[in-house]
Amino acid sequence: MLLCIYMRFHVITIFPEIFDSYLNESILGRAIKGKIVSVKFYNPRDYVKDNKNKTGYKPVDDKPYAGGPGMVMKAEPVVHAVDKVLNAVKDKKSKVLIINFIPSAEKFTTSFAKTISKKYTDIILICGRYEGIDARVDKILKTKKISIGDYVVTGGELPAMILIDCVSRQIPGVLGKYESLEEERVSTSEVYTRPEVLKYKGKNYKVPKVLLSGNHAEIEKWKKAK
After folding, report:
1. 16: DSSP letter
2. CATH number reported for the structural domain that contains residue 105 in this entry
3. Same domain for 194 and 110?
4. Residue 113 within a domain
5. Is residue 2 part of a domain?
6. Residue 183, pLDDT score
7. Could you tell me if 136 and 191 lie in one domain?
8. Closest of 134, 147, 157, 161 to residue 64, by C-alpha
9. 31 and 80 inside one domain
10. At what angle do helices 110-119 and 157-169 cross, to 10 degrees?
11. Domain housing 146
């Protein structure tokens, strides 16, 4: 029995193949196959009117005004790619959020993931490259700017994967049980499995006795303390 799609992710990227292995495996792979979530890609190169350059690609970048290092992604190809999404999901029931990943922006959190998983049906993720995207994209599309942390990565694809993963976990049916959400149970980063005694280089590393006791009240106390 197929479930209805709860969330549609639309990724604007010039490197859609980067997502292949991550989205095809494990929990996300099952969620996509089970039609609980969907992920579609839109390449800005497909929305460039200029002729191909010497490399054979339609250029999506150009030199920044007033000078500076590197290249900047043009606004028009990105805006037209997003327009393609908006035209495809245009109905009264659709609630769309457009996200642009900016290192200096508001930090992405599980709390934010919970909120948008319930509030929106479609999330558009703009994956910048080079030295960033023409700032007019944010003004035209009224994007929500998000950062995944106090560091810089090569492009927006990794942040997009992180957001897709975290938001998808909040959607009913993606995980086997509600209790599978680490953030919704009494948990600790200190976990153990068999063997009970691990021998390594002449030393014995044991599982804490409380976890072997069967005393659930004491086990919960231990978890909270950790």
Report:
1. G
2. 3.40.1280.10
3. no
4. yes
5. no
6. 58
7. no
8. 134
9. yes
10. 70
11. 7-178
In a domain, 133, yes or no: yes
* Cα–Cα distance, 132 to 70 (Å, whole number): 9
Q: Please tell me whether the peptide bond between 159 and the residue prior to it is cis, using omega within 30 degrees of 0.
A: no
Q: What pTM was computed for the model?
A: 0.87
Rounded Cα distance, 44 and 130, in Å: 14
Backbone angle region of 136, left / alpha / beta, with phi > 0 → left and psi within -120 to 50 → alpha: alpha
The dihedral formed by the CA atoms of 138, 41, 89 and 50, expressed in degrees to the nearest 10: 60
Average pLDDT, the chain: 90
Asked if the model's pLDDT at residue 119 lies above 80, the reply is yes
Give the model's confidence band at 178: pLDDT under 50 very low, under 70 low, under 90 confident, else very high.
Answer: low
3-class SS of residue 104: strand
pLDDT digits (tens, 9 = 90+) for 77-99: 999 999 999 999 988 789 999 99
| Final residue of a structural domain among 178, 195, 212 | 178
Beta carbons of 136 and 75 less than 8 angstroms apart: yes
What residues have CB less than 8 Å from 125, skipping those under 6 apart?
A: 9, 10, 11, 12, 99, 101, 156, 160, 163, 164
Give the burial class of 200: count Cβ atoms within 10 A of its Cβ; 0-12 exposed, 13-18 middle, 19 or more buried.
exposed
Confidence grade of residue 55 (pLDDT, cut at 50, 70, 90) = low
* Residue 1 confidence (pLDDT) above 50: no
What is the CB neighbour count within 10 angstroms for residue 218? 13
Number of domains the chain contains = 2
pLDDT tens per residue across span 200-224: 999 999 999 999 999 999 998 998 8
